[in-house]
TrEMBL record:
<dbReference type="InterPro" id="IPR011989">
    <property type="entry name" value="ARM-like"/>
</dbReference>
<dbReference type="GO" id="GO:0020037">
    <property type="term" value="F:heme binding"/>
</dbReference>
<feature type="domain" description="Cytochrome c">
    <location>
        <begin position="732"/>
        <end position="867"/>
    </location>
</feature>
<dbReference type="InterPro" id="IPR011041">
    <property type="entry name" value="Quinoprot_gluc/sorb_DH_b-prop"/>
</dbReference>
<keyword id="KW-0349">Heme</keyword>
<dbReference type="GO" id="GO:0009055">
    <property type="term" value="F:electron transfer activity"/>
</dbReference>
<dbReference type="InterPro" id="IPR016024">
    <property type="entry name" value="ARM-type_fold"/>
</dbReference>
<dbReference type="InterPro" id="IPR036909">
    <property type="entry name" value="Cyt_c-like_dom_sf"/>
</dbReference>
<keyword id="KW-0479">Metal-binding</keyword>
<dbReference type="InterPro" id="IPR011042">
    <property type="entry name" value="6-blade_b-propeller_TolB-like"/>
</dbReference>
<dbReference type="InterPro" id="IPR055557">
    <property type="entry name" value="DUF7133"/>
</dbReference>
<keyword id="KW-0408">Iron</keyword>
<dbReference type="Pfam" id="PF23500">
    <property type="entry name" value="DUF7133"/>
</dbReference>
<dbReference type="InterPro" id="IPR009056">
    <property type="entry name" value="Cyt_c-like_dom"/>
</dbReference>
<dbReference type="InterPro" id="IPR013427">
    <property type="entry name" value="Haem-bd_dom_put"/>
</dbReference>
<dbReference type="GO" id="GO:0046872">
    <property type="term" value="F:metal ion binding"/>
</dbReference>
<protein>
    <submittedName>
        <fullName>C-type cytochrome</fullName>
    </submittedName>
</protein>
Amino acid sequence: MIKFSLSLISFTLVFFGLKNFFSEPKIQRVSPPELTITNFAGPDVTPSPACLAVAPTGEVYVGVDMMGSLGKDPGKGHILKLIDKDNDGKMDEHIDFAEVDNPRGIIVQGSQVYVLHTTFSKETKQATGMDLVVFEDKDGDGKADGPEKPLIEHISNAKYIRERGTDHATNGIRMGIDGWIYISVGDFGFHDAVDRSGKKLTMLGGGIMRVRPDGTEMEVYTHGTRNVYDVAIDPYMNVFTRENTNDGGGWNVRFSHHIQSGEYGYPVLFQNFTDEIIPALADLGGGSGTGALFMDEPNWPEQYNHVPMMADWGRSMLYIHRVTADGPTFTQKDEEFIKLPQITDLDVDGSGRLYLSAWDGAGYSGSPNKGYVVRAVPNNWKYKAFPDVKKASIKKLTELLKSNSAVGRLTASQELVLRNNKQAIATALKVASDQGLALDVRIAGIYTYAQLTKENGIATLVEFTKDKALREFALKALADRKVNIDKIPVEPFLQGLKDSSVRVQAASIIGLNRLGRPEVANVLLQTKVPASFIAPAKGTEGPHATPNSAIILPHLAVRALVDLQAVDALLAAVKTGNSTLALWALRYIHTEKAVNGLIENYKHSTDEKLKQQILVTLGRLYKKEIAYDATWWWGTRPDSHGPYFKAVSWEGSPIIEKFLKEEATKAGAQGKQFYVDLNARQRMDIPEFAEEEKVAAAEEPKIDLDKIKNKKGQVGKSSIEDVLLAINKLQGDPLKGKNIFNNQGCIACHSLSKSEKMKGPFMGQIGSIMNREQIAESILKPNASISQGFASVMITAKGDRTYMGFITEETAAKVVVRNIAGEVFTIKAGDILSRKEMETSMMPEGLANSLSYEELASLVTFLSEQKK
């Protein structure tokens, strides 16, 4: 199943295992009364649908994935083309478009179909990575004419796809009106991905990357998310995601606004270094974000239009997020929209037909009997044929580009770009210049014009920066492509920094970053840093999911200064009123020049506060993140202390260590605590500053699990089917359920509060994502499917030692294992000889055998009420 560990496989699956969520053949859904939903295709045609895309003309392309997120064998996936000939909401014909393994994202543009999928070796039958490819159907028979054409190769970690499956791999793809394909990257990241120009790129962790439709100009757009599965892109090129982190005691959903070049912090900054990141807009509790779409179609009801729509597989719900402008970013309010069991993806066509796919309990390795596609339309919807743009006149394309349909505008834009003639250029320019048109239409015009004219359009785009309404987008279009970046003047961006609109200022900073001119560093250094730029206090977690519009501009300025490697300007600014921003940027520049310059600034300063900030900066520079080579991954529950995951020393480390020791000696016993705290926070591991770690002894409950499971009560004497029928009729007493939770051994491996020590799957939110029947099934059949992140692991270590349990903590230096009895073991990474994930759950079957129906009902009810 899609990368549903993704956000939540690990979380939604309680008790180390979970059976398929929905076993009934009947389609379960709940939708607003203003919509009509029809069953478009069932599991006989579209089992295990991982992704879908719809052509503007209404043909539905579905990625069937019989591998799921845990499967590792090839030959189980394909792309289907589904056709509704009479437009009644039911598929009339289906065609096998192409055979691909693990389809994860699809885009349809005319005769071309872009697909992101896992690749396999024909010889070894093992995964070799993931590729973004394009198929073409030139003869219109509904089938790809030939083999796929790779656009980007190796955009995920092949080692962990082979070992784990695609649960944290690369996923959904979507095209913006700017003509870029945006790619959602899970936190497997990638190493040496290569595009058609031969450019190579590596990304440690997750985020969003993008590429041109011809497979060139590949680049990272944002960084620092965990399991983003898809993006919603609005007409103004705002990018939204519903991704998650493993923060605290659960896998919580984050709704984020992605701003180009932004750092979102997972996993090393989002808890203890939140002053340095762009925070998410909201923490929405447990869940698992999947497909995404920005709905912008004229025949949709106003209350459901112009909004990001986000699927959540874990909650079996399509959400609407009401976004409100907040400076350069937004605030949001989410609301439930359409309930669909394990919803995976959604897309809309040019006639306003919304299609949604549901996994429907297909399991983590796919199922031939589960999964379907539905169509949703407004009650008053009437079919209106979308034109064949290949045959359309320039007049018709102009009408489409000027329409209030996002599908229409994008389709017209791409067709004009393909035609690439004087008429196309004139059309785009006329639309962009017409001040009587809606802003989103003019934006479509300006991006189309920029794609058509490239360097020949620079002068006109510069003129557009003088148009107040278009200024932000003209600046973005100017710096959007780096192929002609040396020909773009810097002046419009410098003027943009003075604009009254913070969105224009943000676009200007991003543009100056992309222009790559170090001489603008002093201007960027004048960006004001707000009072909210405060590191979290020792032992507290920072606000990583609270909107902070004031931090956006300085954050973007820092990213630009780092990319420009403006060391001289930064060191000079340390002595000025811009020292805070300068020192913030210097945290990320690991050069001896930066280190020596900071030390010189320290020696010549009489400002004690500034000197302390310099020491903090040097502490941060003492180590750096190891170069990523894809041989490792941080797992589903990584060490999130930060500031690095795998820290290593470098050439500047001895210089910093010598200086800090000298200053610590001068500070004496009274000032030593500062260096002790600095050493701990920055994880420098300097022995002279180390403080002995005091671990409070925790009293663990003594539970005899064998004695519990060998008792035979009503549950142990009955079939699972009879038990589930009985549970459906009994409400149970949640107070009794709490006692049973303790007495039956659940407490040994599960916590209920985020204030407790993290053990196995967190139960404090389980009621928000699973119903009573699902909870009961997971208790009765723990081996049905193992919760990702909580599989039993067998570790052999030096000294002829063996440990079996689940990982509760993992860093580059150690692994912490908790066994079924609640015992905790810390194993040095260097002592580990082998590590194997077990195929069975650590939770033994039969722990509920001694219970009566009423007692099990009470336990289930108690858990179903855990919705923190």
